[in-house]
């Protein structure tokens, strides 16, 4: 179960049976479709040479995206990486002689929890990347507060929304509007309290939005629970760790040549290609500052994410 399931006192995780655990104000399936609507799930079909009977076996790989955990770098560089390392056009002239010889990209914007486990490909290899839970929450908070400054979200904060070409009243925005008007660190303290009270019920603020915001602070477990299969490879996104984990997966698991993957990553970093954005920079405080001026809130988040911290191998902040 995710921290949000605990907050809502559910007996089992929401993803197991969404229709029996409808979030307040709206249908669970609609909310979750909108929640995951902004994420891109990429699946590659990578074929290996197999001597047996001259047949080529196909392996299916699925990236299970967790927002604010290095997802921009992974999903947007997926096709360029495969193109480079399967065509011989590797960065910096590195020769590509991969064991994987072809790739087919299949993009899905659907909520992957809608696919029952028995309908997933039997040989599908799922992978993901995770991050320190509390640091990720703070990063997601920064994304939310930054994007709330846009005209679209200012209209939403005012309780209005365009729907089918008409301006309509949007309810339940008062709490978020009051929090947004505060100054740091009081705003952070208020937002943490709001999240710890409502959990994934915060998704009501995203009603009617094509680019939901509140999902950025939902736990990593919440997203991973939406995938019905086993996630066999988990990488981490800390500096100095993500590149190594990224290279390990695509070379040792997917079968691309290691030198090509390394060259591609170096080139992408040098060019700044689809790097993950620190949207809250300059608009919220740094993690170290919150540890000093919002210590109680940090402790509450440590407690909320205690299971994730232990299971994922992170120390509390």
Question: What does this protein structure show overall?
Answer:
With 317 residues, this protein is of the alpha/beta class. The protein has helices at 3-7, 28-37, 71-76, 78-87, 133-147, 151-157, 174-180, 186-198, 220-224, 242-253, 258-271, 287-293, 295-304, 306-312, and strands at 41-48, 57-63, 100-108, 124-130, 160-163, 166-169, 231-236. The longest helix is centred in the middle third of the chain and has 15 residues, at 133-147. The chain is globular. The model is unreliable at 18-56, 88-101 and 108-113 (pLDDT under 50).
Contiguous runs where pLDDT drops below 50 for at least 5 residues:
18-56, 88-101, 108-113
Mean pLDDT: 75
> What is the total tally of β strands?
7
Q: Give the proportion of residues in helices.
A: 40-55%
Which tags fit this structure?
40% helix, two-stranded antiparallel sheet, 14 helices, alpha/beta, 317 residues
SSE diagram, text form:
Blueprint: H1 3-7, H2 28-37, E1 41-48, E2 57-63, H3 71-76, H4 78-87, E3 100-108, E4 124-130, H5 133-147, H6 151-157, E5 160-163, E6 166-169, H7 174-180, H8 186-198, H9 220-224, E7 231-236, H10 242-253, H11 258-271, H12 287-293, H13 295-304, H14 306-312
Parallel strand pairs: 2-4, 4-7
Antiparallel strand pairs: 1-2, 1-3, 5-6
């Amino acid at each position: 179960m995710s921290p949000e399931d605990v907050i809502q006192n559910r007996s089992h995780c929401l993803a197991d049976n969404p229709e029996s655990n409808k979030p307040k104000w709206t249908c669970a399936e609609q909310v979750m479709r909108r929640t995951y609507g902004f994420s891109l799930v990429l699946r590659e079909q990578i074929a290996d040479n197999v001597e047996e009977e001259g047949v080529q076996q196909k392996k299916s790989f699925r990236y299970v995206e967790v927002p604010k955990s290095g997802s921009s770098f992974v999903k947007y560089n997926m096709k360029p990486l495969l193109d480079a390392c399967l065509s011989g056009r590797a960065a910096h002239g590195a020769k590509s002689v991969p064991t994987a010889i072809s790739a087919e990209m299949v993009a899905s914007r659907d909520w992957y929890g809608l696919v029952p486990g028995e309908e997933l490909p039997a040989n599908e290899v799922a992978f993901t990347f995770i991050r320190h839970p509390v640091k990720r929450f703070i990063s997601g908070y920064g994304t939310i507060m930054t994007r709330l400054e846009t005209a679209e979200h200012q209209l939403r904060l005012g309780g209005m929304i365009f729907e089918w070409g008409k301006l309509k009243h949007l309810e339940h925005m008062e709490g978020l509007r009051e929090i947004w008007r505060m100054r740091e660190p009081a705003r952070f303290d208020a937002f943490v309290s709001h999240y710890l009270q409502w959990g994934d019920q915060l998704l009501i603020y995203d009603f009617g939005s094509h680019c939901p915001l509140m999902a950025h602070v939902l736990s990593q477990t919440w997203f991973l629970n939406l995938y019905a299969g086993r996630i066999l490879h988990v990488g981490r996104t800390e500096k100095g760790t993500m590149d190594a984990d990224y290279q390990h997966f695509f070379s040792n698991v997917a079968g691309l040549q290691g030198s090509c993957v390394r060259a591609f990553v170096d080139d992408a970093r040098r060019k700044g290609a689809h790097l993950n954005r620190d949207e809250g920079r300059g608009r919220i405080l740094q993690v170290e500052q919150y540890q000093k001026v919002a210590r109680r809130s940090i402790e509450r988040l440590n407690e909320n994410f205690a299971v994730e911290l232990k299971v994922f191998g992170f120390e509390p902040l």
